[in-house]
Amino acid sequence: MSTIRIQNVNKFYGALQVLKNVDLAIGSGEFTVLLGPSGCGKSTLLSAIAGLEEIQEGGIELGGRDVTHVEPAKRDIAMVFQSYALYPTMTVAGNMSFGLRVNRTPKAEIDQRVNWAARLLQIENLLDRKPSQLSGGQRQRVAIGRALVRKTPVYLFDEPLSNLDAKLRTEMRVEIKRLHQTLGATMIYVTHDQIEAMTLATHIALMRAGVVEQFGHPEDLYQRPASLFVAGFIGSPSMNFLPGTLAPNGAGVGLELPGLGGGQQAVDVGSYAFAAPAKAGEITVGLRPEDIELVNDGPALEGKTLFVEPMGADSLAWFDVAGHRVSVRLKADDGKRVGETARLAVPTEKLSLFDPNTENRV
Ligand SMILES: Nc1ncnc2c1ncn2[C@@H]1O[C@H](COP(=O)(O)OP(=O)(O)OP(=O)(O)O)[C@@H](O)[C@H]1O
Ligand SMILES: [Mg+2]
């Protein structure tokens, strides 16, 4: 096991800066996911940790050792690549042991490690096959096995499941989680799939355009997103956003919202954990679909039901609230209300407020 420290890393391709002041402290045994849209710098950061990409500024420490200028082979890291080319002429065992044979590891040790990894990945019965005789998921396991046999304290994964179909992805996701729990190694995993990130990670670093927008526990990013970008990126369907106005008064903080009906001017959000004293003015209000309840009375947004999407376990209803589309997660059998008006309670305990100019949480 090993800690990882990434200190103020800047990386340029010519004039293009692709990593901007990236600073992360990763604990030993953590499962950290680098999440973000295509092109945000996830693979570049992972490759920099592995030593495959040079950085122009900053430093990288593994297990307390400065490896910024250490060559990849001496970093004690194993990496699983997105495009995991297996050698087609070699068997599964041959593919898994290739690196060890190159390093002249003794044969008994190689056999022991290959069998150990094959058992963990449940591919023991495939060791004599060629890659062409395997399914996509089995090939992916071999690619992971090739990294596991190195028995390093740190494993890096770059979108290892992106070539698999949805069902296999879910199955392999569980396998990777189990692997992490069994090995207790420090793992960094790149994906642009927020579900994969939420289910696997002990910590998520959400990146945008070379910048880490937020680093924390998955539930922190979900419940207390630091910016509009984080709020919109994590959660499916996405968080609802409404333009509101804050009006602090002696007794509390009034929040005016479009569609607030029943003679209500504002709801009180005095109990919201403001980072700084609330200022009067425009505010962007974020509401998760599952935090909104339909109510008969009390302060609520008036909405017209546009359509309902049944999803099996529950259903997703879409409302028009004063011209804004708002989604609400409802019980599965709660879908017979299209065209009806409804009252959407504002979850004052669970909303997120953002400055419309800086787009940061307030
Ligand atoms: N060798 C290179 N030369 C110039 N620019 C590059 C090079 N490699 C990557 N880039 C640029 O660096 C940025 C980050 O790329 P990177 O591959 O790290 O993104 P990513 O987050 O992994 O995206 P994806 O999800 O599509 O894999 C992109 O804008 C990309 O175009
Ligand atoms: Mg990538």
How would you describe what is shown here?
With 362 residues, the protein is α+β, with helices and mostly antiparallel strands. It folds into two domains: 230 residues, 3-Layer(aba) Sandwich (Rossmann fold); 114 residues, Nucleic acid-binding proteins (OB fold (Dihydrolipoamide Acetyltransferase, E2P), Beta Barrel). It has a six-stranded mixed beta sheet, sandwiched between helices. Strand 16 and strand 17 form a beta hairpin. Helix 2 packs across helix 3, helix 2 packs parallel to helix 4 and helix 3 crosses helix 4. It is elongated, with a radius of gyration of 25 Å. The mean pLDDT is 93. The chain binds adenosine-5'-triphosphate (ATP) and magnesium ion.
User: CATH superfamily membership of the largest domain, which one?
Assistant: P-loop containing nucleotide triphosphate hydrolases
The assigned CATH architecture of the largest domain is 3-Layer(aba) Sandwich
- Output the strand order for the largest sheet: 6-7-8-3-9-10
CATH classification class of the largest domain:
Alpha Beta
Residues in helices, as a percent range: 10-25%
Overall mean pLDDT score?
93
The SSE string, one letter per element, is: EEEHEEEHHHEHEHEEHHEEEEEEEEEE
CATH topology term of the largest domain: Rossmann fold
Give the strand content: 25-35%
| Number of separate structural domains | 2
Small molecules in complex? adenosine-5'-triphosphate, magnesium ion
